[in-house]
Write the structure tokens for this entry.
Amino acid sequence: MSASGITWKNLSTLILAVSATAFAIAQAPADDDAIFPMPAGKIYVNECGSCHTAFAPGLLPARSWRKMMGDLGSHFGEDASLDEPQHLAIQKDLEVLAADGTQANMRIRRINGAIPAGAAPQRISETGYFKYMHDEVPKHIWQRKKIGTPGNCIACHTRANEGRYGEREVRIPQ
């Protein structure tokens, strides 16, 4: 041991710990990455994403997804009925990854916390989180032909079907 109490072993341990921490920080998504877990299989993206954005399940609580899945015969004016196995698989995936689901991360828990306990919103664009995240978008932007409605996430968030809504990936169509 040296007079200062620092040994090569202690120094190398410190350097290793600092390096590992720096690597972990570099690999972590930035706050604006907004990466949401998506169902592992392709059923959800293929079925739901064939008509609209395959929304990240973490954007709504399980009660919202249950209500939505319970009325697919009249899904926003369309018959989106599924056969029983597909229906059950999608509903299970939505509930597990929902804003109040067991796999919810801190961002998703904040989304859920902004939804009143008894509410089961059916439109993500009507949630407090959506409104907060899009409060700087002027009304005329939503009216652009390639966007149409606030629910058309994929128009600007080109990787929304992968659960990616980060600001750095936003491309607003002209």
User: Anything to note?
Assistant: The radius of gyration is 21 Å. Residues 35 and 164 are 5 Å apart (CA to CA).
